[in-house]
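Posted in: Structural Biology > Protein-Ligand Complexes

Title: Requesting predicted complex, PLZ in pocket

I'd be grateful if someone could produce the 3D structure tokens for the following input. Sequence and ligand are given below.
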Amino acid sequence: MSTVTQGGPSLPQERRVVTEIPGPRSRELFARKQSAVPPGIGTTLPVFVTRAGGGVVVDADGNSLIDFGSGIAVTSVGNAAPRVVERVRRQAADFTHTCFMVTPYESYVQVAERLNAITPGDHAKRTFLLNSGAEAVENAVKVARHATGRPAVVVFDHGYHGRTLLTMSLTAKNMPYKHRFGPFAPEVYRVPLAYPFRWPTGPEHCAEEAAAQVIDQIGTQIGAENVAAVLIEPIAGEGGFIEPAKGFLPRIAEYCRSEGIVLIADEVQTGFARTGHLFACEDEGIVPDIIVTAKGIAGGLPLAAVTGRAELLDRVHVGGLGGTYGGNPLACEAALGVLETIEAEDLVGKARRIGEVMLPRLRALAGRAPIVGDVRGRGAMTAIELVVPGTKEPHPTAAAEIARRCHAEGLLVLTAGTYGNVLRFLPPLVMPEHLLQEALEILEKAVCEV
Ligand code: PLZ
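-- Reply #1 --
Done. Output follows.
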């Protein structure tokens, strides 16, 4: 049995189901959650966690689940990863907070330097730090508006950017994110995404036709000279792991460049080796003007970043950007530990390897199970889209039922998608291969039974 030091010494890397899932202790805790926390804060799987590391999450009843969620693409380096833990432990003993805007510290600067160096493009860059993906997206929009003096922001069908007022407005899907939470922020315009599986004239025309529609809509409905930013996820995450048809992103990038529009890549979910590149933009050689990162950046500590062209970010007046906690010293140390781990353990290579194991098996599954309409993704960010067999009609109840069966067997999977009919797979990049194979068997069985 392999063990890892993550999640404390010798956390066995095994699936182990010793009670019903959730077990009695988790059910007791969940009842307390129900009376102390509002139902608006949902629960994917009501098992209460006591330890996690490598490829597993251990619950209060002693069950050890295979983790295909990574806390929604956060613990890519593994939970309680040793380099992260050690740095955070040391930092916590030295000082926990000063506010970087009051009295700075070196780790923030180091994170900024590292992000400036590793993000796409070799132009001069600047980075500033925030607490969450949503906060970073908002700040990227602030910078783009300030630098261009233009109001409009263009976003895409199936896009997800957060739950604050502006980012909720930038997000496409009504339920559960926007419903009854309006009115929304103005000057947000939505255009089509090149979604190959659902493109009306077929995937082969998708990139070209979608890009033409985007450019036409911007020209006729907004006016390019009014657009501060085009904001896009290089792979739409919450929207269902939709990889835009190849050629779409380069065409949009070229259009933005020609019109002086700031191209913002939201790499909150795709960043930090997840897709088999350090950043998903690299797949087609896209160089965004601003890149927004969070999630995988700090192994679970709250941190997010805006990295962009120096000439854009330097335009904002002194004191125009900030926040009490942005770039907290514990989170900065965690980020440095994450970047060390990605390099030392070749997590870019590991993410690719996960994709090489998973994608062929998922494709073979789609061949046997007509309920699987599409298989997609890159590296350790893969998904299957479920449909009513023989059609493209979304099948969200099948996705929910497959997820339920996986959970009962001790495999934590997440759903996604505008229609709720996508099962997405986000293993930690350090997932041992025997767990990956075991997880795929459970998944295959659940899909075939449903
Ligand atoms: N941009 C691309 O995926 C967060 C949302 C979970 P925060 N996605 C997980 C939920 O239901 O709230 C996300 C993202 C992309 C921005 C965000 C927002 O990041 O750190 O959740 O604010």
